[in-house]
Structure formats: structure tokens, C-alpha cells
Amino acid sequence: MTALRAAHADHTIRLGTEPVGRLLWRACAQTTAAVGVYGIYALTNAWFVGHGVGDTAMAAVNLAAPLLLLLGAVSTTVGAGGASLVSRALGAGERQGAARAAGNAFFLFWSCALAATVLGLTFLDPLLNLLGAHGELRGSARAYAVVLLCGALVSTGFSSLVRAEGRMGFSTLLWLVPVAVQITLDPLLIFVFGMGVRGAALGTVGGQAVSAAMSLWFFFGRRRRPYRVTPKDLLPHAPTLRALLGIGLPSFLAGTGVTLLAVLVNSTLAATGSATALAAYAVCARLQTFVLMPHTGISQGLQPIVGYNSGRGLPERALRARNLSLIASLLYGLLTAAVLALLAQPLAGVFLNDPATIGTAAQALRIIALGLTVAGIGPLVAAYAQSLGRPKPAYLLSVGSLVLLKVPLVVALGRLGSGGVWAALAAGELASAAVALVLLRRLRSPTPADP
User: Fold this and answer.
1) 196 Rama sector, left if φ>0, alpha if ψ -120 to 50, beta otherwise
2) Taking Cα atoms as reference points, which of 12, 76, 25 lies closest to residue 304?
3) Which residue of 39, 51, 239, 443 has the fewest C-beta atoms within 10 A of its own C-beta?
4) With 0-12 CB in 10 A as exposed, 13-18 as middle and 19+ as buried, what is 443?
5) Is the predicted pLDDT of residue 117 greater than 70, yes or no?
């Protein structure tokens, strides 16, 4: 029994003792594999809808996808804020503080998810109008949205909180198992039972429910852990909620920004009356989601290392982890952008049927790929700042890059047609990365005296 407890504690302790390069490699490899598998699901889901229902249905699903992005923004808010508090508390030896932070993260997410379900279903028609779901697209978008909203309570497995205590393996399972469920359910519900886009949505929610159940077992059923969440920890604690929101809110703003940007792009393309451009963007959005997943994995692998070592008073380890992550993100961005640009036509052809739509999607991919070279820098800088408990740079990146850069570019260049929209998306990523690097240079290095 003692040996088992020591083994479980070792997952947390090695965050501050193992060589940073090896630790970061293992952490990022696991998180990247996990989120990469989800990216594969996004692509297979698009293929199932495109070939099982049609190009128009895929465009409709993409119009409703911002709802999924918004729920993801809520989960990353509590994940980033809660993980920062948990990892720094564990680094400082404060187990009760870690338990309270995790419990309040659960409370906050479940409250927001319940509100999203009630408000979303109540105001569904105005919401669909806002998303640009009109005409033949509306019925499919509505069916997809209803299922997503009903499943909001189970739309996260709190993998960030699992990683915060060094349990990278189980955190990876929280992504792998539900994606396997989703990939199994999608073809069954779409092709065998003929449920169309509703089947695609049910497959997504079914996988999320499995992840949520695994998470509940981990936090409330598993005993040999560095801290235990009790019912008392679920009660809202004002100082903890303030700290959690203060650190995690930039993630919500960033996720909301992605949602609003997607809505703006869809509305701009819909204004041209081109269903071809909408379907092309649906494919580009899925492929972009896939290639950006490793950037997310790098940021997620970095967070517990920086948070724990910052709380333990080991700033040099946090800085080395940051620098190695930045180099990895840049190299990966260059590689994936080159692959997308070279293989744009055949990649678009995998998901689409109409030759004109394939050509439009290929053109869009080649232009958007320019911005993807540096697309991981902004999220990485934001994650590093949040892990230190300093959210101001993350606020500037999430709000400033959207309001001052990306939205104005889409509005201005979108007047030139779909080509202008693709150029605006690429230019927005390049400008945001430049701002992130400036903020990183000004971000004070962690010191042992930091909270």
C-alpha cells in the first residue's frame, strides 16, 4: 500500500525533479497525441457528414459548430484557471487548496453548461439567425444544435485538472476513449440508422459523456491521489472563484473570439450568396482544427510544468520549458503549413464532391496556410502567462488580437470576396503572433517569491 501511494505521488513530484527536456517531451507527446486524435475525429466527422448526407449538410453543421466552440471555451476557462491553481498549490504543498480549486472548477463549469442549455434552447431561433443558418441550411443546423445544447453538461472531461497533478496518461485517455466512441457511433448513426446530421451530433455527445464519466470516477472514486475532492470543495468559495476566473477568463475570451470569428466569416461568405464558399470554408475549418491540435498539445504539456515549478520556486525550469516549447511550436507550424499548401487539392477532394467547391477549398487552404506557420505562438504565450498566474498578457492576446486585428481584417478584406476572407484569416494569424512575441519579451520571468 505504501509503495502504491509513493508511485502515485511520484507523478506529481517528478514535475519538479525530472530533466525539463525529457519531461516536456513526454508531456507534450501525450497531450499532442490526445488532442491529435480529436483532430482526426473532426476530419472523420466531416467525411461522414459530407459523404453520408452531402456538401450542403456539412455547410449547415459548420454553421452550428460555433456552439461547440463556445462550450469548449467555457471548459478551457475552468481548465486553465483550475489547472494553474491546482498545480501551483501542489507545488507549494497545499493539498486542501488544490482540492478546493478543482471542486470550484466543477461547480463553475456545470453552472455555465446548465445555463447554456436552458438559454440556448429558449432562444434557438434567434441564435440560428445570428449564425447565418437560413434557407435549406436551417433544418440541418437546427437538428445539430439541439443535440449539442442538450449535451452541454457532459461536454468536458476536465483533462486539464488531471494533467495539473502530473497524470498525463489518464489525461490522454480522457481524449482517446471518447474519440474512439465517437468514431464508432458516427457511421452507425449516419449510414445504418439514417439519422443524418442529428446522428453526427449524437456521436459527439455520446463520446463526451464517456469522457465525463471517466473524469467523475477519477476525481470522486479514485482514492490514491495527491488530493481528494469532497462535497464541501464543490461549494462556491469566492476567493477561489475570483482567482480561477481571473486566470482562466482569457481562455474563455480566446475561445469566444474563435467562435465570433467563425460566425463573422460564415456571415461574410453567406452574404455573397455562395454556398460553394461556405462548404469550402467548412473543410478548411476542419483541417485547420486538425493541424492546430499539436499546438494545443504543446501548450497543455507546458502548463503543469510551469505551474508546478513556479509554485515550488524553481523559475529556471519554467523558463527552459517555455523556450523549448516555443521552438517546437515554430518548427511544427512551418512543417504543417508546407504540407497543407502542397496537398491542398487532394485534401479538399477527400471531403467534397463538387469540383468547383474543391477548387475553392484548395485555394483557401493555400492562403490560410501562410498564417498557420505561426498560429501556435499566441496560445503558447497565453498558456505560459496563465500558468504563472499572470493573466494580463493572455487578456491582451485574446481580446486585443480579435478586436484590433482579426475582425477588422475580415470586415475590410471580406468586401473583396472569398479570396479577401482567406487573406484576412492568414494576415490575422501573422499579426497576432508578432504581438505575442512582443508581450513575451516584456513578461517578467518567474521568481521564487511569486505566488
Assistant:
1) left
2) 12
3) 239
4) middle
5) yes
* Separation CA 195–CA 52 (nearest Å): 10
CB 178 within 8 A of CB 211: yes
Residue range 83-98, pLDDT digits in tens: 889 988 888 888 899 9
Average pLDDT (429-445) is 86
- Which of residues 50 and 179 earns the better pLDDT score? 179
**More confident: 175 or 152:** 152
Quick one: how far is CA 421 from the chain centroid? 23
Examine the pLDDT at 67 and tell me if it is beyond 90.
no
In this structure, are residues 294 and 29 in contact, taking their beta carbons and an 8 Å threshold? no
Instruction: Report helix, strand or coil for 5.
Output: helix
User: Within 10 Å of residue 263's Cβ, how many Cβ atoms?
Assistant: 17
At 426 the three-state DSSP class reads: helix
Task: Report, in angstroms and rounded to the nearest whole number, the Rg of the chain calculated over CA atoms.
Answer: 21
Q: How far apart are CA 255 and CA 67, in angstroms?
A: 11
C-alpha cell at 216: 467523475
Residues whose CB is less than 8 angstroms from the CB of residue 356 and which lie 6 or more positions away in sequence, other chains included: 276
- Catalogue the long-range contacts made by 92-95 (C-beta closer than 8 Å, 24 or more residues apart): 92/311, 92/312, 95/226, 95/227
Residue 192 DSSP SS3: helix
- 365-394 per-position pLDDT tens digit: 999 999 999 999 998 998 898 888 787 887
Question: Residue 211 in contact with residue 157, Cβ under 8 Å?
Answer: yes
pTM: 0.67
Burial 35-64 (b: 16+ CB within 10 A, else e): bbbbbebbbbbbbbbbbbbbbbbbbbbbbb
Q: Which three cell numbers stand for residue 444?
A: 517578467
Residue 212 sits at the vertex; the CA angle it makes with 207 and 218, to the nearest 5 degrees, is 130
Torsion, Cα 56 61 66 71, to 10 degrees, reads 180
Q: For residue 332, which amino acid is it?
A: Y
In contact, 359 and 276? CB cutoff 8 Å: no
CA–CA dist 309, 316 (Å, integer)? 9
